[in-house]
């Protein structure tokens, strides 16, 4: 069993506060939920080239970010299927064990314990000097993101309140800059903008050095307006980050009042492994394979 500090908050009823947010931001009411689930099941039967499960938990994953519009949820399911097909060489049959070493031995991707002051999950990505692209190439990095998103999508609170990413570029050098290839940039941004059934609320770039401009020029052409408006650059000014995430909910690494981060992806690996049945199911979803 995983520690209570490191767990997926699955199958939990929304708190009253989160229910109010869901109704205000996502049009979520019991009647609308019931109608949308019924309609999406019908649409799924009509789209015979797609295979997805039709249980309420899975369909809710697609309906919540689409504000309970069944047709929009189906469009998202189709984009997920297209993304999986286009990136089959990376994603076909992807399991946590395939990137176990990257999780356990390289502190590249981490998830903050608990949530921020707005109840959101916070993903921390270290692509500065602590990242060795020779040991964890960009393709491996993407696989880590993908597996973490598969786990996060199971949390009702995260489905409603959304997620936040902190990209930490501390001590980034030429090795890391070259490691973030144009192919990786395009794949990551296509995934985030088209094929990720989660509400990404904010992306924070921190401790970025001058060389970061090379990376930004590579990313910029692929970023559409909606995402561009959610990206913030802070450099070394943590007070700027604190305007978005309260220091009471941030570790000392980012000028926060919590202790410095003393945990890593190694602590989250068993958590990802705990949802293996869901990951196996997710691997089977997408376009129907011709036999």
Secondary-structure blueprint of this entry?
Elements: H1 16-26, H2 30-46, E1 50-51, H3 56-63, H4 70-86, H5 88-91, H6 100-105, E2 109-111, E3 121-126, H7 138-152, H8 156-161, E4 163-168, H9 174-179, H10 182-194, E5 200-206, H11 212-219, H12 225-228, E6 231-235, H13 238-241, H14 265-274, H15 276-284, E7 286-287
Parallel strand pairs: 3-4, 4-5, 5-6
Antiparallel strand pairs: 1-7, 2-3
Question: Care to give the gist of this entry?
Answer:
The protein is an alpha/beta fold and 291 residues long.
Structure description:
The chain is α/β, with parallel strands linked by helices. The protein is built from 15 helices and seven strands. The strands form two sheets. It has a five-stranded mixed sheet. The model has no long low-confidence stretch (mean pLDDT 96).
Query: What would you call the structural class?
Result: alpha/beta
According to DSSP, the number of beta strands is: 7
The SSE order reads: HHEHHHHEEHHEHHEHHEHHHE
Mean pLDDT: 96
Helix content: 40-55%
How far is it from the N-terminal to the C-terminal residue, by CA? 39 Å
Spatial strand sequence of the major β-sheet: 2-3-4-5-6
Rg result: 19 Å
Reported for the largest beta sheet, the result is:
5 strands, mixed
Q: What proportion strand?
A: 5-15%
Please give the count of helices.
Answer: 15
């Amino acid at each position: 069993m995983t520690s209570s500090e490191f767990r997926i908050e699955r199958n939990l009823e929304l708190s009253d506060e989160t229910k109010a947010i869901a109704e205000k931001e996502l049009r979520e009411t019991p009647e609308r939920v019931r109608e949308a689930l019924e309609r999406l099941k019908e649409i799924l039967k009509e789209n015979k080239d797609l295979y997805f499960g039709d249980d309420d938990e899975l369909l809710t994953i697609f309906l919540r970010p689409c504000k309970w519009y069944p047709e929009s949820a189906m469009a998202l399911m189709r984009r997920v299927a297209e993304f999986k097909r286009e990136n089959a060489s990376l994603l076909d049959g992807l399991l946590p064990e395939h990137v176990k070493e990257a999780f356990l031995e390289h502190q590249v991707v981490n998830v903050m314990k608990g949530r921020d002051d707005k109840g959101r999950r916070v993903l921390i990505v270290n692509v500065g000097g602590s990242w060795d692209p020779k040991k964890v190439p960009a393709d491996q990095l993407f696989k880590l993101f993908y597996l973490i998103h598969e786990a996060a999508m199971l949390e009702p609170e995260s489905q409603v309140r959304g997620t936040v990413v902190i990209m930490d570029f501390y001590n980034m050098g030429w090795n890391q800059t070259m490691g973030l290839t144009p192919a990786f940039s395009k794949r990551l941004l296509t995934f985030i903008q088209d094929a990720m059934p989660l509400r990404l609320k904010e992306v924070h770039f921190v401790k970025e050095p001058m060389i970061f401009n090379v990376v930004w020029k590579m990313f910029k052409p692929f970023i559409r307006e909606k995402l561009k408006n959610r990206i913030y650059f802070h450099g070394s000014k943590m007070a700027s980050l604190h305007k978005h995430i309260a220091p009471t909910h941030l570790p000392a690494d980012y000028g926060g009042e919590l202790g410095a981060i003393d945990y890593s992806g190694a602590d989250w690996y068993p958590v990802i492994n705990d949802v293996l049945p869901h990951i196996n199911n997710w691997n089977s979803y997408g376009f129907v394979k011709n036999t």
